[in-house]
Design a protein that fits this description.
The two termini are 42 Å apart. A 7-stranded mixed beta sheet has the order 14-20-19-18-17-15-16, with helices on both faces. The chain is built from 13 helices and 27 strands. The protein is α/β, with parallel strands linked by helices. The protein folds into 3 domains: 2-158, no CATH class; 164-189 and 441-555, Alpha-Beta Complex (Aspartate Aminotransferase, domain 1), CATH 3.90.1150; 196-434, Type I PLP-dependent aspartate aminotransferase-like (Major domain) (Aspartate Aminotransferase, domain 2). The protein is globular, with a radius of gyration of 26 Å.
Length: 556
């Protein structure tokens, strides 16, 4: 991988010295794609002879030798202009006597241009990207393996970051399997078994042969049950054709973003955020706009900040209450303020993630955004069964909203996965039959979560240099450990940020937690208390002991 970073540029130029034996195959296509991101990625197949990458900034060329394009049965080259082309009227691709252009009417360009090899001689590609000072990153790499197979990936996938929560959970699991006694507090998965009534409904579905495909949007029985739940518990009215059941709330969220966002749209996301929100926006070729919050405000969005950041490109506001990772719950009054702002902008929709709705601690109460005046037709509500009903492995969630949006989500689902598991849907009907808010089965779990929360809040408040906002829902603590940054531990080195602190706690304390940087706030780490009180007590003691050397380092 070659990476050249220039902080300002007037012209970026790629030159290839092509082998004279390279055949002009008329069946081959080269593609140039221009995207509105903030870096430039240049993946192309390479072998054999030499080529050069030239970047010219203030007339001073920087070069790096690369390998040339290899003549393959189906050669492919893709140039991805990912820097924002501010103040650039045209991005020109001149070849020989021909010049093809992608015109920009706004700050961003999103175009794809294709050429036959016979009319596309590999000589010089020049990008005139405007004179404004910008930061530009260029990467070039070989995309052919040793067998000559093109292994290049799409720029959309390359722009997506892997989930740190999944990565840390997998790492902790691997350590446990290797015999290391790691306490895993990274994953958001209840330690309870699925309530027996729900499990029996799934087992009976199998025994009774209810194992075939279901309608794409979900069984009518389940969608009717969801409509009843939303009306009775949330005060919002839907019909079955305004609900689509998916393989988990994560799929519901992703389909919603894909259904309503166009390239160049902005998705407004308060931070700290669930790790997948920004990546879902990027997968839709939209731009995540992150709005910071403060621990002193319980990590709740400031309506004034929201209003100042809305533009004509703002398409979606994502709210999560109760919140992952903070456990914060939006009061109804604050949601009403946000709703008044949303109402001023006809293009702005709200994606309300309510998956932790039932895991809430009095006196806090849950308010569905769609229940607020004027917000029903502006809101896509997502919920599911994983968290409250301890059904993470059953993979079932749902989205409810205006019919035309829901139908669009269903269209995407029909081409990706089709309907969710018939067995899981039968179990979900049983879950919704447990009574208001899940009945005693859910309230028993919530009682245990609250006991664990109270223990952790008390324990961490007794530690030096720790800031904590008491969560009102979900099963996470988002704790500010930034006072430990800059300190050094013998045999480990300096604690630079939340990632290095989490690595230190895993190495020294054998406790797996998630860095706040994964959620957009590097001052904190996330601790899941979806585990037994005994396990949490042991984890706190390990963390306390691991921090002692860091506390001592501050005194030196």
């Amino acid at each position: 991988m070659v990476e050249v970073v220039i902080k300002s540029f007037l012209l970026a130029m790629i030159k290839w010295r092509v082998s004279p034996t390279l055949p002009h195959q008329t069946s081959s296509t080269y593609r140039c794609s221009i995207f509105s991101l903030h870096s430039v990625a240049l993946p192309f197949p390479c072998q054999n002879s030499k080529s050069s990458l030239f970047l010219i900034t203030n007339s001073h060329p920087l070069s790096h030798p690369l390998n040339t394009l290899s003549p393959s049965p189906s050669p492919f080259f893709s140039f991805h202009m990912a820097a924002a082309l501010r103040n650039a009227a045209t991005c020109r691709i001149p070849f020989g006597d021909e010049s093809l252009s992608a015109n920009s009417a706004s700050d961003h360009v999103s175009r794809s241009l294709s050429f036959r090899l016979s009319t596309f001689p590999l000589k010089t590609l020049a990008l005139h990207a405007g004179k404004q000072q910008n930061r530009m990153v260029v990467k070039a790499k070989a995309d052919f393996d040793e067998a000559g197979v093109d292994i290049s990936l799409s720029p959309r996938v390359n722009a997506v970051k892997p989930s740190k929560t999944v990565a840390i959970s997998d790492q902790a699991t691997a350590l446990v399997q290797a015999g290391v006694p790691v306490i895993r507090l990274a994953a958001g998965e209840p330690d309870f078994d699925t309530p027996s009534v729900i499990a029996e409904a799934g087992i009976n579905a199998i025994r009774e042969g209810y194992t075939r495909y279901t309608p794409n949007a979900g069984t009518l029985e389940l969608r009717q049950a969801i409509c009843h739940k939303l009306k009775e518990e949330n005060g919002i009215t839907y019909t079955p054709d305004q609900v689509v059941v998916s393989n988990g709330a994560k799929q519901s969220l992703a389909q919603a973003v894909l259904a309503v966002c166009s390239p160049g749209d902005e998705v407004i996301i308060p931070a700290p955020f669930w790790v997948s929100y920004p990546e879902m926006a990027r997968l839709a070729d939209a731009t995540p706009v992150i709005l910071p919050t403060s621990i002193s405000d319980n990590f709740l969005l400031d309506p004034k900040l929201l209003e100042s950041k809305i533009t004509e490109r703002s398409r979606l506001l994502i709210l999560c209450s109760p919140s992952n990772p903070t456990g914060s719950v939006y009061p109804k009054k604050l949601l009403e303020e946000i709703a008044r702002i949303v109402a001023k902008h006809p293009r702005l929709l709200v994606l309300s993630d309510e998956i932790y709705e039932h895991i809430i601690y009095a006196p806090a109460t849950h308010t569905s955004f769609a229940s607020l005046p004027g917000m029903w037709n502006r809101t896509l509500t997502v919920n599911g069964f994983s968290k409250a009903f301890a059904m993470t492995g059953w993979r079932l969630g749902y989205l409810a909203g205006p019919k035309h949006f829901v139908a669009a989500c269903g269209k995407i689902q029909s081409q990706f996965t089709s309907g969710a598991s018939s067995i899981a849907q039968k179990a979900a009907v049983a879950a919704l039959g447990l009574g208001y808010a899940g009945g005693e089965a859910v309230s028993t779990m919530v009682k245990a979560f609250r006991e664990r929360r109270d223990f952790l809040v008390k324990s961490f408040r007794e530690m030096d240099g720790v800031k904590i906002s008491e969560p009102q829902g979900a099963f996470y603590l988002f704790i500010d450990f930034s006072s430990y940054y800059g300190r050094e531990a013998e045999g480990f080195g300096k604690i630079e940020d939340s990632e290095s602190l989490c690595r230190y706690l895993l190495d020294e304390g054998q406790v797996a937690v998630v860095p706040g940087s994964a959620f957009g706030d590097d001052t904190c780490i996330r601790i899941s208390y979806a585990d037994s009180l005994t396990t949490l007590q042991a984890a706190v003691e390990r963390i306390r002991k691991a921090l002692i050397p860091l506390s001592s380092a501050a005194l030196v």
